[in-house]
Amino acid sequence: MIETNQTLPNHTFNLLTENGMTTPSTADLFANQKVVMFAVPGAFTPTCSARHLPGFVENFNAFKEKGIDRIICISVNDAFVMKAWGDAQSAANIDMLADGDGAFTKALGLGKETGVFGGYRSQRYAMLVENQTVTQLWLEEPKAFEVSSAEAVLANL
């Protein structure tokens, strides 16, 4: 599992924007930036839609005031689902990043097999990444939602 002071693995993602499909790399998204990335088990799922993503949307300006350059929401979903979820949640300021096959999540060591829920998914977490290096990691216990909320992350910045 990735730990603090480790560099994120190189990866190319799918990110569907208003201008179409893009394929940013880890360097494109994290180099020379201070980024909060949070992961959810699945788009449109109850806790993710009711609390996790909305907290980051509502607190976007507070993160900016703390020097955060970008907020990324990542899930083992495809780019079309992530875009639709972001639109439904008014998350225009959040990069809705797709890890369609879970390869990035696997490389981080932060995935889990959920069986009937949807197969391989991400664990719920948030991390602070500075110039591609993880400087803080907040990993939730199974079925918990405490340390990776927007409010908890803000309190720890």
From TrEMBL:
Domain Thioredoxin: 2-157
EC number: 1.11.1.27
A UniProt-annotated Pfam family: Redoxin
The protein's name in its UniProt record: Glutathione-dependent peroxiredoxin
Keywords recorded for this protein, A-Z: Antioxidant, Oxidoreductase, Peroxidase, Redox-active center
PANTHER family: PEROXIREDOXIN, PEROXIREDOXIN-5, MITOCHONDRIAL
Listed CDD domains: PRX5_like
Gene3D superfamilies: Glutaredoxin
Homology family: Belongs to the peroxiredoxin family. Prx5 subfamily.
Catalytic activity: a hydroperoxide + 2 glutathione = an alcohol + glutathione disulfide + H2O
Function: Thiol-specific peroxidase that catalyzes the reduction of hydrogen peroxide and organic hydroperoxides to water and alcohols, respectively. Plays a role in cell protection against oxidative stress by detoxifying peroxides.
